[in-house]
Design a protein that fits this description.
Blueprint lengths: L10 H9 L10 H4 L10 E3 L7 E6 L2 E5 L8 E6 L4 E4 L8 H8 L4 E4 L5 H4 L8 E3 L3 H6 L5 H4 L30 E2 L5 E3 L4 E6 L8 E5 L4 E5 L6 E4 L6 H14 L5 E4 L9 H15 L5 E3 L2 E6 L2 E6 L7
Parallel strand pairs: 5-6, 6-7, 7-8, 12-14, 13-17
Antiparallel strand pairs: 1-2, 2-3, 3-4, 4-5, 9-10, 10-11, 11-12, 15-16, 16-17
The protein binds zinc ion.
């Protein structure tokens, strides 16, 4: 889940538009008006005829599959070796990501999920090989998400463009899927000429993990880091575990050239890891001052913020 707060517009914008007589322009939510993000202007776009996804070549053999028409702005990554490919997350399940992936590679594809929030597993059911941690939390999410939950993701204020033909918010749901291999911390996945190391990074969810491509200095961070408000307020978040995971990733920073986050933009400087670790420490020690935003406590730092649950008043 994500990612940009203060985004919800709509009543005030709508009334303003009517007041100045602009009914002809379709209403676009505030976050959508800010797209495209400038970072994308410098990237190499491929398969620009895809209707739902935008696809960018970030490095040789590394594609970002971005969903800019939905508020989450989720990003999945296709990582190619010489013999196999890994798809790190499968997005919202709105566009058919397996068809898009088949246009990018003919290699056999294994899905690895950064974690199993609905916006990262939406296309899992389209694939045979799906690797995850084996936790009760993960198993629960394998059952899919009923429409009553997922349809909110496609509410008008969360969309920034047309849905693919045939996709309807009333029937959108996350299909059931099955993990075919339990990943271990430190496990190395050999793609042929490229190796990915699995790094457990619990916190945002119990089953969060990052992928490290040592040779190329790439760290795929999932939702443990992205430039934006990082969601750390849901019941499945464990902030103490998150702090440990962030410290572990920050220690890797000297080996890393590029972070590839799962929302908003597909590249960030590795220096963010150290700054994120500092930020988490400041929150833990009580040094950072938060503010109440939309029912959550937001701690703002340069380039990102941490969005925590508001603690209930302690009873004496
Ligand atoms: Zn998430």
């Amino acid at each position: 889940m994500i990612r940009r707060l203060g985004a919800f517009c709509c009543a005030s914008i709508l009334s303003a538009a009517i007041a100045v007589g602009q009914p002809a322009e379709p209403l676009r939510p505030e976050w959508c008006r800010q797209l495209p993000r400038p970072e994308y202007g410098k990237l190499e776009r491929v398969l620009s005829d895809e209707p739902w996804f935008e696809i960018y070549r970030i490095r040789p053999g590394v594609f970002a599959i971005y969903e800019p028409k939905q508020f989450e702005e989720v990003i999945s990554y296709l990582i190619l070796g010489e013999k196999r490919a890994v798809l790190f997350d499968t997005g919202l399940g709105v566009g058919r990501i397996s068809t898009t992936v088949a246009r990018l590679t003919s290699l056999p594809v294994t899905v690895i999920n950064s974690h199993t929030h609905f916006d990262h597993v939406g296309g899992n059911a389209e694939f045979q090989e799906i690797w995850n941690r084996d936790l009760p939390y993960t198993q629960q999410n394998m059952r899919g998400q009923p429409n009553v939950y997922s349809r909110d993701a496609l509410a008008p204020e969360r969309l920034c463009g047309p849905l693919p033909p045939g996709t309807k918010p009333e029937s959108y749901s996350i299909r059931r899927w099955k993990s075919t291999h339990a990943l271990q911390d430190g496990e190395r996945v050999d793609l042929g000429g490229r190796e990915l190391e699995v790094i457990y990074s619990p916190g945002h969810t119990p089953d969060s993990l990052a992928l490290l491509d040592h040779k190329n200095g790439l760290l795929f961070t999932g939702d443990t880091f992205y430039p934006g408000p990082i969601y750390l307020f849901t019941p499945e978040t464990d902030f103490a575990a998150y702090a440990q995971s962030v410290a572990r990733l920050a220690a890797l920073a000297p080996q890393i050239q590029l972070l590839l986050p799962a929302h908003n933009v597909p590249l960030a400087e590795p220096s963010y890891l150290r700054r994120l670790a500092d930020a988490v420490q400041q929150v833990q020690s009580g040094k950072a001052k938060g503010q109440l935003v939309e029912g959550h406590q937001e701690y703002t730092f340069e380039g990102f913020s941490l969005l925590l649950a508001v603690k209930p008043p302690s009873s004496k």
